[in-house]
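User: Hey, my collaborator sent me this sequence without any context and asked if I could get a structure. I don't really work with proteins. Can you help?
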Amino acid sequence: MGLSRFTRGLTRKEEPGTFPRLRAMLLSDRDITAAIAEGRLGIEPYDPGLVQPSSIDVRLDRFFRVFNNSRYTHIDPAEQQDDLTTLVEPDGDDPFVLHPGEFVLGSTLEVISLPDDLAARLEGKSSLGRLGLLTHSTAGFVDPGFSGHITLELSNVANLPITLWPGMKIGQLCMFRLSSPAEHPYGSAVYGSRYQDQRGPTPSRSFRNFTRAETRRPA
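Assistant: No problem. I've predicted the 3D structure and written it out in structure-token form, which is a compact way to encode the shape of the chain:
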């Protein structure tokens, strides 16, 4: 079986600062499958039945982080608040119940590993969105070079509780080829990547590189 156009483009070396002949694109099902088969794209555990026309479904793991609302008077992204969340796990085969207005952290069952020329975006499932479940609040983008579980920002905007079953389909991951490989992929020392190799639902580490720009105007 010959290499796909996508695969041929991935194996060709590009000169720094030049535009590759193959432009950035959204990967199709055949290209996702080829990248996994070559070991360039890591998805573990991998189920070929989850591959969609231009994405791959990801499933929900069984661990969640709930917020300890009584520990702090407010949340400050500049401060280290280690006990802001608590890791919980449903008993046996029980679901996790997400009540109206609640927000918790979950994670994908799959560990995702991206090469230096693929980025990804996590999208929710339409069927779950129609029930009032939001899979992520803002952090749907995954940088090239990332490896780890993807932390989910789960919200219930419905009027009734929603049961979250470990192992259920929770979202879909779309992959994009960059116009050229990233010079410094996620995980490089230059970025101090805070979530590389994360396992399970990982709380915010914003305090580690919190900065503020000067906003006061000269008198």
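In plain terms: The mean pLDDT is 88. You can pass these tokens on to your collaborator as they are.
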